[in-house]
Amino acid sequence: MQRCSVGIIGLGLIGGSIGKRLLQCGWTKNLLGWDRDEHVVGRALASETITEACRPEEMVNEVDLLILATPPSQMVNLSQRIAPHADEKLKAVTDTASTKHSLSKELSVIWKERYVGLHPMAGKEKGGIDNASADLFAGAVCALVPTASSNNKAVELAKDLICALGSHPVIISPEEHDEIVAITSHLPMFLATALVALAGTRASQQEELPKFVAGGFRDTTRVASCPPWLIADVWETNKGFISQAIKDFMDILSEMSKMDPKELLKFAANAKESRDALLAQRGEMNDRN
């Protein structure tokens, strides 16, 4: 489905980047947007991220595809408020939240067959529309997460959207999605945040510490600069899988602390091989697509 009308609610990094990409590639010529911050709406219009500002209650009558790109904690209440205003023109509703199991259950009750979840596996540590870019999703995987209620029309439209963003769709269930991203996306946020907290405490005791912050620390803690609401939201909606991931990680650290140098050398070599293999498999997927 080409050049459908699109509405985006939430014009931060993800919503803004989607808008920029869809307009630049010509997938839509009519892109409505709204954000609770009027300044952000103004920036979106000025930067050609959207073509028109529109309130959510009106937007659901004007677009074929509605994209919810607000913080996940706002999506259910927002949907309950605006869904009664939608008419037959609205073909699909999707969200960009990084957790799906609990949220998709609630959104599918509200939007019924129109709803299908998305999760672009791309981002930056700094949010906001001023950091949005049309190429943010280029080459990235995007989870396509239908529910039992999703109809074929909504799924196909969501898949077309993913391809228009320059991403690769991977169909996955809400439960498997959340279990996987607890390891690949959410746990790194918790580890980075904890490491920065530790460094901050030590820096108050050792004033020379900041002078030794170099590439390894910056790379390892990059995601600790993400918006604070993000880590709180993923904890609220994916606590079970994240808790298990933290436990498993702490068990590994405990084992490492008991190793002698030879054992640690072998363990580190195996870890390096695992990392290389994971990244190679990710690269092979890009090559196939």
TrEMBL record:
It comes from Acetomicrobium mobile (strain ATCC BAA-54 / DSM 13181 / JCM 12221 / NGA). This is Prephenate dehydrogenase. One of its GO terms (molecular function) is prephenate dehydrogenase (NAD+) activity. The lineage of its organism: Bacteria, Thermotogati, Synergistota, Synergistia, Synergistales. Residues 4-289 form the Prephenate/arogenate dehydrogenase domain. It holds the Pfam family PDH_N. The keyword Phosphoprotein does not apply. It comes from the Bacteria. Its EC number is 1.3.1.12. Keywords: Oxidoreductase. One of its GO terms (biological process) is tyrosine biosynthetic process. It is an enzyme of class 1 (oxidoreductase).
